[in-house]
Write a structure and sequence with these properties.
This protein has about 400 residues and is of the alpha/beta class. The protein folds into 2 domains: about 240 residues, Type I PLP-dependent aspartate aminotransferase-like (Major domain) (Aspartate Aminotransferase, domain 2); about 140 residues, Alpha-Beta Complex (Aspartate Aminotransferase, domain 1), CATH 3.90.1150. The protein has 12 helices and 13 strands. The strands form 5 sheets. It has a 4-stranded mixed sheet. It has a 3-stranded parallel sheet with strand order 3-2-4, with helices on both faces. Strands 8-9 form a two-stranded antiparallel ribbon. The chain is globular, with a radius of gyration of 21 Å. Bound molecules: pyridoxal-5'-phosphate (PLP). The site of pyridoxal-5'-phosphate has 15 residues, from α3 and α4.
Length: about 400
């Protein structure tokens, strides 16, 4: 057994590399005793807005609350319908429900794992109270922003981009994700490319009225303290989290580059072993391994996750083998949202409803991709994946 240990994510080396700066920034906040919103949060809002090439940033408690606040800002009411993927983190689908609205599930494009615009247009035809579309830029790769912006315009509903996993990703036109639609929501959960030391989030928008509305909603709906014209929530970002993020933001591009270099390494290793990228379906044969397809420049994948695909019969055994070899992996996501118990009331818990989503949930597995992986660690991951897939494929073909 190998002595190389490869966790799915190890945040300690990153902290060590910026420890002095982070510790000083946190000490500054502690000395000020200004902990909620305030100058650190305002500065971060401007810096993130500039990075994302949008006019306004509104810091909030988390990426989950960012979605709820965004839906509140456009006046989502009970019974309204919101198009969103089922193959995503839970918060994308639960946010509409928190306001009594209904997520309307849309299947994915099996190449990018992002919500499919053609499927969204079809599903929209059956909606009677459609009020918004939420594409997710899953794993750090832009969804088809052009198509969703056009669909939103045609249907007369706003598009809210869930950019939680994709800060810094660029769409097919080279624009930063989040820059071209009504609003975008972000998460600073520690595992994101830009993560804080706890929970944190932001909403960005180019519209000054929406920005103003969001600022009111995140402080219990009060513009003037203790006077409430609307019911909001406690959705404020802490100054300590903002201070940490302000130290990290100038390093973000170099961390994206580190992830990209690891993705290059894996892509090359898997290609050398006969694997193709996700544009070639597993069913077309060859080495039963697909690595993530890379969007053509000027688009940019930021590899929040590096997700490969193997046959369902192999996936869990591959995961167990990698665990034995001290390699951390994760399944994003093992049960699509439309099949979750808590959404049964929607009547959509029907197996086969979203075939691409359901297949991806059974066949995908995320490998360690964090920027500080050593050459030895990433070589160990690639080698173990290739060896296991090769052996399993030979066994399946009966040639062992
Ligand atoms: C796609 C997506 N949306 C929303 C969220 C929610 O963000 P948070 O964990 O900051 O609440 C996440 C977090 O993992 C996510 O991946």
């Amino acid at each position: 057994m190998s002595t190389v240990n490869v966790p799915l994510l190890d945040l300690k080396p990153q902290y060590q590399s910026i420890k002095a700066e982070v510790d000083a920034a946190m000490a500054r906040v502690v000395a000020s005793q200004y902990f909620i919103l305030g100058p650190e949060v305002e500065a971060l809002e401007q810096e993130i807005a500039a990075y994302c090439q949008v006019k306004h940033g509104i810091g909030c408690t988390s990426g989950s609350d960012a979605l709820i606040l965004a839906l509140m800002a456009i006046g989502i009411k009970p019974g309204d319908e919101i198009l969103c993927p089922s193959y995503t983190f839970f918060a994308t689908g639960s946010a509409p429900c928190r306001l009594g609205a209904k997520p309307v599930w849309v299947d994915i494009d099996p190449v990018t794992y992002n919500m499919c615009p053609r499927a969204a247009a079809e599903v929209a035809q059956r909606c009677t109270r459609l009020k918004a579309i939420i594409p997710v830029h899953l794993f750090g790769q832009a969804a088809d922003v052009d198509a969703f912006a056009a669909l939103g315009t045609r249907l007369g509903v706003p598009v809210i981009e869930d950019g939680a996993q994709a800060i810094g990703a660029r769409d097919a036109t080279g624009a930063m994700v989040g820059a071209r639609c009504a609003m975008s929501t972000w998460s600073f959960f520690p595992s994101k490319n830009l993560g804080c030391f706890g929970d944190g989030g932001m909403i960005t928008t180019n519209c000054p009225h929406v920005a103003e509305q969001l600022k009111v909603l995140r402080v219990h709906g009060s513009k003037v303290k203790y006077y409430h014209r609307t019911i909001g929530m406690n959705g404020r970002l802490d100054a300590l989290q903002a201070a940490v993020l302000r130290v990290k933001l100038p390093h973000l591009e170099s961390w994206h580059a580190g992830r990209l270099s690891n993705a290059d390494f894996y892509d090359a290793a898997f290609r050398a072993a006969g694997a193709a990228d996700s544009r070639t379906p597993l069913a077309s044969g060859g080495t039963p391994l697909r690595f993530p397809s890379r969007p053509a420049a000027p688009a940019r994948h930021i590899y929040n996750q590096y997700v490969i695909r193997v046959p369902e019969s192999m996936r869990d055994d591959l995961r167990a083998h990698l665990a034995e070899q001290k390699i951390g992996t994760e399944i994003y996501y093992p049960l699509p949202l439309h099949l979750q118990e808590c959404f049964e009331f929607l009547g959509t818990a029907v197996k086969g409803l979203l075939p691409h989503t359901e297949a991806a949930a059974k066949e995908t597995i995320a490998l360690p991709i964090f920027p500080e992986l050593t050459s030895e660690q990433r070589a160990h991951v690639a080698q173990q994946v290739v060896a296991f897939v090769g052996k399993s494929a030979r066994t399946l073909a009966g040639t062992h």
